[in-house]
Amino acid sequence: MSSDDDLKTVGEVSQLLGISVRTLHYWEERGLVVPAARSWSEYRLYSCKDIQTLEQIVIYRATGMALNEIAEVLSAGENKIVHLQRQKKLLMEKQNELGRMVQALDCLLEDAMGNNKLSVDDVAKILGNANFPVYQAEAEEQWGESDEWKISQQRASRMSVADWANVKVRTEAVEVELVRGMSEGVVPGSEEANRLAESHRELISQFFHVNHAKHVLIARGYVSDPRFVEYYDARAIGLAQWLKQIIDANAIANGIDPADAVWE
Hints:
Elements: E1 8-9, H1 10-17, H2 21-29, E2 37-38, E3 44-46, H3 48-62, H4 67-74, H5 80-114, H6 120-127, H7 132-143, H8 147-157, H9 161-183, H10 191-204, H11 212-224, H12 226-233, H13 239-253
Antiparallel strand pairs: 1-3, 2-3
């Protein structure tokens, strides 16, 4: 049992770890860390072991791990070495992601100084998606005569490096929310699921208007094209299928039968 000298108040822990008192309280509500003791006036007191657990949570959160996943990891009973190895792996992956973002910022600087028109390869570099030129060529082959393609190309031609970097930021933000929703068990057809589906529809409507029927048809590719399955499932296993389910359910809520959806 920790002595009183080893225990720290919630304010002291907040300052030590650089996280808010409100966050500490929320993590306690979620059952991640329950303070080891209480003072005579019922203030929370954290032991050294509690603080070590909080440090682990801080690192896992920094890598984008959802709280329910962190709870599962912490309850697995793994030893400290296993935890540290996992945290190192996750942080190295985060480091690689930040490296790609730095490369994108280098492109921003280059564009700002030179005011150069972007090529498809330039856009792929900014987005961090090596397959972008292939997708672009396939889309042009399939939709090149459509109004949607012409509109999307007109909009894309006016976009600067900063605009494309913003697309990347928005895309990552939406996908983080999708992963969070699926990992927390959000049910397709629920209010939250429909909100997430709308966020995704608005994201791809940056290039041409995507109504609910078009959204359904686009989502079919997320489960039929192995490349899209790989893309989404790399973020969370099963995300491609779940994303299609919430898109279909949101379409139903907006009067569209997914089985009868047509592109118009």
